[in-house]
């Protein structure tokens, strides 16, 4: 059996969240449920009060088993008396957003947040590699690589191509300062947003969108026969501009794929890119 594929993720960082009030405080910030059992995964966004996406986070709640495997987590003062109830392990491409949120909104609560040094890799596997710190992410695990490791790493670009083919948006490429989480599709919405949990920053706006039943724009993946440039306009056959390209990559099976943000009503219609290239839903 061949080894699982692994990809270096230079923009991603692991963070440790700790403190006696860590669950309650993050419950009031995250778009998804943080009150999970020890050792269970979490996945959430941080949004502005007006709903715009600022960070996407995957993580896991600490457990006694995790602390026993990686005692340096407790050695760093992560949890008092190595109590796993008071800690999470996060991974994100936007660590500065989490750190800024904690700096701005932790007042008297016992909450701390710190970055774990070391490179991050995404491994496409159903099973977490043993003896490596890992967090479940779409299609596999993000792992914190030690200084000396034997993991054979591929370039991130290939992973982004595979993710595009699977309909997984890339934060920073397929998003902007104006992006609302529900615009990234049903799969993203189900993984990262919980509409029945209590109040958190931005909850009122996202709940109003959910109650209305739709957003005005959606991100989707299209197939084209030739490469197209970033930000190329997407047109309807009637000549109306209905969106723009967010990324374009070549897949070994599907050929040229395009991520695009489109007006909701246009997502199921015949489309043209740059006024010449026919585009079809993947």
Could you list some keywords that capture this structure?
282 residues, Alpha-Beta Plaits, Elongation Factor Tu (Ef-tu), domain 3, 5-stranded mixed sheet, 33% strand
Description:
The structure is a single chain. By secondary structure, the protein is an alpha+beta fold. The chain has two domains: 6-148, Alpha-Beta Plaits; 165-281, Beta Barrel (Elongation Factor Tu (Ef-tu), domain 3). The chain is 19% helix and 33% strand. The strands form three sheets. Strands 11-14-13-12-15-16 form a six-stranded antiparallel barrel. A five-stranded mixed β-sheet has the order 8-9-7-1-10, with helices on one face.
Task: Look at the helices and sheets and give the structural class.
Answer: alpha+beta
Label the overall shape: globular
The number of helical segments is: 7
Helical amount: 10-25%
What separation lies between the terminal Cα atoms? 30 Å
Contiguous low-pLDDT stretches (5 residues minimum) are none
Summarize the structure.
This protein is α+β, with helices and mostly antiparallel strands and 282 residues long. The chain contains 7 helices and 16 strands. The chain folds into 2 domains: 143 residues, Aminomethyltransferase beta-barrel domains (Alpha-Beta Plaits), CATH 3.30.70; 117 residues, Elongation Factor Tu (Ef-tu), domain 3 (Beta Barrel).
